[in-house]
């Protein structure tokens, strides 16, 4: 009888972590999820879910109590531009996320876990390569000389180096992906930590036909957004490959925030008026460069932004309507 494969998912109460748990269960894994909270929008499918604080070394040793076949480390103190770029949360973001990574690497290395998948972020790329909204440079080898535009990005860069150091010094096989704006159903969509696709879907869902939708800045800043299913596929392929990374996991379909609003409004069948207001913006342009992932994994994301936004808008519109009825 074939032994059942096991996986540990840190950050399993979050958006991407919850989806990874579901994907691994479909593949027949026994899964332990770990987070400081349970998933907010759906019951976890993990076989075992440990609620606790990964900043606590003792708790990390408790959850990493065996040699798991696969470990996914997505736990972090993070959010959208309204959380990351105000400067108010910098100390917490750096301290909390770095502590989690230090603890989990030490615990897994002591358990002789072969390697950990680590979710880094495109926020670690230098600000000076992302000033032109039409021609940002986010090739993996452009990371140095380092100059991220946020402390969140600096912490991600530090942790990348930490995982690679464990590869060199302890013979681990850690894998690193640089995520570019992952979105989809069951993600944070209100409260200040939501990212642009969810925020726009919420604003359009709550607007009347012909109503206003607020946009931070002039709306010409550019981004690419990757649907969750594509993110999962890239993540699992990298984890099970011989390539350690770092590698971009993102879409190359770059749009302005104004265009993002137009696409969502069209999906909703509404006419909206864009109202540009001051707000935290981040870099002027960012887009995934998928040459390396295509070369190393023989794969790169292909789903359109439109198709992902259709599913995401439907889910967020349903949440907003439910909240409105409950109010």
Explain this structure.
With 327 residues, this protein is α/β, with parallel strands linked by helices. It has two domains: 6-182 and 227-249, 3-Layer(aba) Sandwich (Rossmann fold), CATH 3.40.50.720; 185-224 and 253-287 and 303-319, UDP-galactose 4-epimerase, domain 1, CATH 3.90.25.10. It has helices at residues 15-26, 57-63, 81-84, 90-110, 151-170, 196-206, 228-239, 257-268, 291-297, 305-326; strands at residues 6-10, 30-35, 48-51, 70-73, 117-121, 175-179, 182-183, 212-216, 222-223, 226-227, 247-249, 255-256, 273-277. The N and C termini lie far apart (53 Å).
Key features of this structure:
327 residues, alpha/beta, Rossmann fold, UDP-galactose 4-epimerase, domain 1, 2 domains, seven-stranded parallel β-sheet, two-stranded parallel ribbon, 10 helices
